[in-house]
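Late entry, written up from scratch paper. The run itself happened at the end of the previous shift, but nothing got recorded in the book at the time, so transcribing now.
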Amino acid sequence: MFQYKFSYTHPHRHFIDLEMRICEHDSAELILQLPAWRPGRYELENFAKNIQYFKVSDADGNPLKFEKITKDTWKVSTPNISEIIIAYNYYANELNAGSTYLDECQLYVNPVNCCLYVPNRMEESCVVDLDIPGNYKIACSLEQNGHQLKANNFDELAESPWIASNSLQHKSYEVEGIEFHVWFQGECQPDWDRILKDFKAFTIEQIKDFTAFPVSEYHFINQILPYKTYHGVEHTASTVISLGPGEELMGEKLYRSLLGVSSHELYHTWNVKQIRPKTLLPYDYSKENYSRMGYLYEGVTTYMGDLYLKRSNVFSNEAFFSTQEENLLKHFHNGGRHNMSVADSGFDTWLDGYEMGIPNRKVSIYTEGALCALMLDICILNKSTGQYSLRDVMTRLYKEYACKGKGLTEEDYIHELMAYGGVKALHVVEDHIYGTKDFRASLDVVLSIVGLQIEEQENRDFFASRLGLKALRQQSEFHVKQVRSDAVADKVKIAEGDVIIAIDEQQITKELLESFMTKDRVKLKLKRRFETIDVEVPLSAIRYYPKYKVVPMKKTSDRQKVLFEKWLG
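Output as recorded:
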């Protein structure tokens, strides 16, 4: 058993004091590892940079010799030493769904950020003592005894974040004898009746399809912040979600985001926490766990999270279509789709994280993975005349792989898709998951199967529509963030990083941009790294970066109507 203790003396300084006690040690040296990444974010991290001091001693307080042998690994000399105490602190001043944070109002910990482990003893139980104010409640999926938490092994500890605070708001609901807890930390006024009704609805639908829930209870732990943010991280029996601003929580837009991310993270309880690529089973916290299957564990989850909101009637058809329209826009506005498949992009999250990186290099495992899942779902529905869907494939993966402790290979997944979807499903795999073939023709075909079509609409953003660039406004300046290859902006040599500071020698306003939508020529003043120049830009009739709308076809057959109902419920 390993013992951890969390305490602090000056919370405004954001330093947590940690103590790890190791007993029954029986070798001449000890290896201590701090995780190099965290599940739910498939990129290397550097958590060790947050450690300010690090001390090792025996049970009597005598210092032990140690050295750091990698950026997050320590080797301790332990001749004839059976009990070792490691004392260190951790700077906790980052607040998102995967971080660790301390202030006067809360102790928020993702143990995978800051808890050391012994690589050859990961299966031993862990006890965590929290030295916190007596009136603090704890939102956590671990077994609790007062302010003590217990985990069966390090994996369970690493996957069990908590918030300790005296201002937590909490309610729960029950489905199939399983209790689901909803926690809010931060300034907000939840409409509990609405939240519990909607959460229960999508929970029922997900459990109904999988026929079982992998854990005995589940916790939605929400960090509500006073500024705009959106982030969620899945765990075995919980999720942490950060959203803001809190004053808008029950407004239409942010509440829809809460529903979307919550349904998404709940679906992860099966998909990736249980249905796991073989290369991620078990997790190796010390290095990269390469996988090309981000299209499954994030792409399918993105699609299914939204689909279950529709199938549970939490979302209307239009609300569900808007999620797919957002995916279409992100996909078609990203030139990286021509250069790297979603499978290879998933592999490369370990290279450059979740940033898009250099222009037009890669795509998103969420966006393109979700669109591929949409196509696969309708292909399977069509082949089986509505008898089966991608939901049945996922249920089979859960029962035949996850429940039997088997990791999933790429070949396994493709085999199951073909068994349900046949040659059409294989075409999606080859052309769009592992290839870079244009999505549009395939999307048109599959959507027509359920009586839908994609309608392109003009983008009313002047820079996007008329010049073919995307810019971020900062006061009266526009910082160029993306330029479409071969668009007008590209042809006059405008590049990412340029700053547009005036148009026709006028300060840029919303009204000015609207007045230029019908012009055939403008003069831009550009600020660059070494110069400020004027650029004459001829505007063609071409409109770039259109928006996308999913709309019903004017005429649909009985078969299309039946498949539509089978699809959305």
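The longest helix spans residues 410-433.
(Scratch paper discarded after transcription.)
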